[in-house]
Design goal:
This protein is mainly beta. The chain is built from one helix and 16 strands.
Length: about 260
């Protein structure tokens, strides 16, 4: 079957060379599909949300908070895709979203990639509280609300070690979310804390308005066994699922 995609602006196909990737930003290449999500909240529909990253997978990102991306919606099970329109009617791309989870009234909440501060990290009064930019989509893929989700941690967060990153911490979203048996939503973050590579679980009970630290899934300092290569000890991208007993969570991750 033919799949039709209608971008709201031209899509540049680049060679993949580093000098091209640095310039392929908002109206650059569709680097990889980061997410396909079924819209409709608890009453899932056949309407789909697709998010593409448009930055290279490198540390020299052109923006401080989040990652450049473009989001498309399909209302016919993926046969035809149109680009999501921003709530403010600008032509600016909506940005990479990942993960997404169902919320009230058939809406879907999608989070951005990087954990950030409202003030420059080096001058933040409290590095235990941080934020993720969030977008809310209705069941046909319209962007209906923007807000900042707050995150609370029992430890200090580290700044992201990149020259132009003033507002970004060394944690980012990845993988999927889970709806727990008590109705709360769990997600994972990965990155660096106090010199260690970690994966931490976060929990929300209010449709993503606020997340509390729920526990540490993996910590690189615990992986010093003799059979593990010193070049493969950093837990990074992760995914999780709820097992049949609806209480046990299985988490897997990539180690680099």
């Amino acid at each position: 079957n033919t799949v039709v995609v209608e971008p709201s602006m031209p899509v540049l196909v680049v060679s993949g060379r580093a000098e091209d990737e640095k310039h392929a930003q908002v109206n650059g290449q569709l680097w990889f599909p980061a997410l396909v999500y079924r819209l409709g909240g608890g009453t899932a529909t056949d309407n789909l949300l697709l998010s593409f990253k448009t930055d290279c997978d490198c540390t020299e990102l052109p923006i401080d908070v989040g990652m450049n991306g473009r989001d498309f919606v399909s209302t016919d099970s993926g046969k035809h895709w149109i680009e999501v329109s921003r709530i403010d009617d600008t032509n600016e791309a909506t940005g990479l979203v990942r993960p997404c989870f169902p919320a009230k009234n058939g809406t879907t909440v999608c989070l951005t990639r990087t954990v950030h501060s409202h003030t420059p990290v080096g001058r933040a009064a409290d590095n235990r509280t941080a934020y993720l930019a969030a977008q809310v989509f209705d069941d046909i893929g319209r962007q209906v609300e923007l807000f900042n989700a707050s995150l609370s941690f029992p430890f200090e967060l580290d700044p992201y070690p990149r020259g132009n990153a003033q507002f970004t911490y060394s944690l980012g979203t990845d993988g999927n979310t889970l709806t727990s048996f008590d109705g709360s939503t769990l997600m994972t973050l990965y990155g660096g804390v106090a010199g260690a590579s970690v994966i931490v679980a976060m929990r929300t009970e209010d449709d993503g308005r606020h997340f509390e630290y729920y526990g540490t899934v993996a910590n690189s300092t615990e992986y010093s066994q003799a059979h593990v290569s010193s070049d493969c000890m950093r837990p990074t991208e992760t995914s999780m699922t709820l097992l049949d007993d609806e209480k046990t969570i299985l988490s897997v991750w990539r180690s680099v």
